[in-house]
Design brief:
By secondary structure, this protein is α/β, with parallel strands linked by helices. It folds into 2 domains: 171 residues, Rossmann fold, CATH 3.40.50; 214 residues, P-loop containing nucleotide triphosphate hydrolases (Rossmann fold), CATH 3.40.50. The strands form 5 sheets. Strands 6-5-9-4-10-11-3-12 form an 8-stranded mixed beta sheet, with helices on both faces. The structure holds adenosine-5'-triphosphate (ATP). It holds the Pfam family Helicase_C. InterPro entries: DNA/RNA_helicase_DEAH_CS, Helicase_ATP-bd, Helicase_C-like, P-loop_NTPase. It catalyses: ATP + H2O = ADP + phosphate + H(+). Its EC number is 3.6.4.13.
Length: 486
Amino acid sequence: MSHFWKPGTEKPRMVDDEEGGVLFLSTAASSSSSSGFGYGSMEKQRQRLPVYKYRTAILYLVETHATSVIVGETVSGKTTQIPQYLKEAGWADGGRVIACTQPRRLAVQSVAARVAEEMGVKLGEEVGYTIRFEDLTNTFLVMTAENFHGLAAQNTTMIKFLTDGVLLREMMDDPLLTKYSVIMVDEAHERSISTDILLGLLKKIQRRRPELRLIISSATIEAKSMSAFFQASKRRRGLEGEELRPRMEPAILSVEGRGFNVQIHFAEEPVSDYVQGVVSTVLSIHNQEPMGDILVFLTGQDDIDTAVKLLNEEAQSNGKKSSGLIVLPLYSGLSRAEQELIFTPTPRGKRKVVISTNIAETSLTLEGIVYVVDSGFSKQRFYNPNQFQAWTKECCIRLMSSVKLSLFIKDDDFVPYRPVPPEYFVPVPEPISDIENLVVAPISKASARQRAGRAGRVRPGKCYRYLSSRQYFTLLCFSFAEFPTQ
Ligand SMILES: Nc1ncnc2c1ncn2[C@@H]1O[C@H](COP(=O)(O)OP(=O)(O)OP(=O)(O)O)[C@@H](O)[C@H]1O
C-alpha cells in the first residue's frame, strides 16, 4: 500500500484556484503502479485513464475532506476507478463498504461487471450490486463476540454499486447507513428527485457520522453550487478530537483529460422530423463510413419503435445495401434479457445499431460504439409544485363539499350511518398528468456532452447532432432538476 497518499507522508501538490477555494491539481500526482494485481494488460489500461494521474490527490482529498466534488470529463475513468482506488487505500477494511450510486439500473449492472472484471473477482463477491428486485452482494451472518447468541451481518462485498433509489430504501432499515465508509454519488448532474433527496439526507447523515466520506461526481456538474450545498453552515469548534475530523468545507477536484477523440458534426439546417432524420443518418453512416456500431438517442418508446421499424423496412427493401444492420431498441420498459442484447458482441461484417432513450446517456460503455446519433431531444420529467398545490386545493374543496353533504344528511335526518347517496360522491381530479409531467424537450448542453461521450471510449468516434450549431448554442447549459427548488 505504498503508492497512495497517507496522512503523515508528503502531500500531493495542489494549488488554490484564484476564484476561491477550488482545489486544482497542478501536476501528475503519481507515476507509479497502483496495485499489486497481476492483470498486466488490464492494469495498463487502467493506468492509461486520465483519472489515474489524480489517484493520490483523490485519496488525499477523501482522507482530509468530508465531501469531495469531482468533475471529470466523460471517459476519464471516474466511475470504474475511484471505487477501486478507495478499496486499495483501505476504505473497505474491517467489513466496511464503499458505495457508488448511479441513476439507472443498467449502468449499475454494467459498471459493477466491469469493475469485477478489472479486479479479477467474481461479480457478487468483492464487487457487487443492488438494484430493485436484485441483490448481487455477499453478506453473511456471524456470531458477535460480546454475545454468542447475537448475530451480526458481515459484508464480504467491498465495493457496491446501486441505484440512488435503492440507497434511499436502505436508509429505512439503517438511517445512518452505518456499513458504508464512502458513498460516491455518481452522475449527480442528473438531479432526479431520488438523487436530490439522497444528497439532502447524506448531508444530514454526515453531521451524525463525521467519519463518512462523500464523493459527488460527474462530467457535467455545477461543481460550485454542489459544493455550496455541502458547505457546513456553522463551524463547530472545540469538540474533542476536532483535529482528527475531516474538513467540512467540500473540496473540488477537476480531472482533466478524456478518452479518444470524438468528432462532432452538426446538422446544416434544423430538421422538423428528427425520427426520419436519424434514420437517414444511420443509413448514410452504414453506407459511407467504416465499420463500427451506432448508438442513436431518441426520446421514448414510440419514437424508438418507429425508427426500428423504418430501419428494418429499409434493410428489407434495399437488400444488400442495408443488410448487415442489427437494430436493437433500448428503453426501460423492455425486459432485462431484451436490454442485455445490447452488450452482445457484434458478429463480423455486421453493424449493430442501438436505438435508445437517455437510459444509455451516462456511465455506459458499449465497446463497439463508434458513432453516436443524437436527436437533440429527450423526455424529461418535471415535478410541478404549482400544479400540485392547485390539485391539493381542488381536492380539499371537493372533499369539504362532500363532507358538508354527508354532515348535512346526518344532521337533518338524524341517521348517523345512513349511506351517502351516490350522487353526493364527488370524484377527486385526476392527479398524475398535472403534477408530474413527462415532456419532450430539447436536451441541455450537458446531456449533449454525455451523449457524445458514449463514443470515443475504446477507440475514436463521431457524434452527429441533429441540431444546427446555432440551435446547439441556444441549449441550456444544464438540465433542470426534476424537482425545482427555486
Ligand atoms: N464495459 C466495459 N467494457 C470495456 N471497457 C470499459 C467498460 N467499462 C469501462 N471501460 C473502460 O474504462 C473507461 C472508463 O470508463 P468509466 O465509466 O470509468 O469512465 P467515466 O469517466 O466514469 O465516464 P462517464 O462519465 O462517461 O461515465 C472506458 O472508456 C473504457 O475504456
